[in-house]
């Protein structure tokens, strides 16, 4: 389970780096947690770092945020920093 979560964290990080390299002016980053039952501290730190390192006008989207991570973000009062990805829409590619 830990190994799968680590691989998912690495995949998310690579996706962030790839998206930034392709079009840094785009202003959109999407973290897709689909299929991840429980997020790790590394996953949480990754999305928080993305928010801190991006411009205030950039949008950080999260898709299928695990319930526990959503709860932690609400407790820390940081949930407003991340927008839920519109389900069923292909607005961001």
Describe how the helices and strands are arranged:
Layout lengths: L1 H21 L5 E5 L8 H13 L5 E5 L3 H9 L7 E2 L9
Parallel strand pairs: 1-2, 2-3
> Tell me, what's the shape?
globular
Provide mean pLDDT, rounded: 78
Helical proportion? Answer: 40-55%
Order of helices and strands: HEHEHE
What does this structure look like?
α3 (67-75) links the parallel β2 and β3. Mean pLDDT is 78; it is low at 20-25. The longest helix is centred in the first third of the chain and has 21 residues, at 2-22. This protein is globular. The protein contains 3 helices and 3 strands. A 3-stranded parallel sheet has the order 1-2-3. It is an alpha/beta fold and 93 residues long. It has one domain. It has helices spanning 2-22, 41-53, 67-75; strands at residues 28-32, 59-63, 83-84.
Keywords:
46% helix; three-stranded parallel sheet; 93 residues
In short:
The protein has three helices and three strands.
């Amino acid at each position: 389970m830990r190994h799968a979560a680590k691989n998912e964290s690495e995949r998310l990080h690579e996706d962030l780096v790839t998206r930034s390299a392709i079009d840094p002016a785009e202003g959109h980053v999407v973290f897709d947690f689909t299929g991840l039952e429980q997020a790790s501290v590394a996953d949480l730190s990754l999305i928080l770092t993305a928010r801190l390192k991006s411009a205030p006008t950039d949008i950080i989207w999260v898709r299928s945020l695990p319930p526990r991570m959503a709860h932690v973000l609400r407790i820390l009062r940081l949930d407003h920093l991340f927008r839920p990805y519109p389900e069923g829409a292909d607005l961001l590619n």
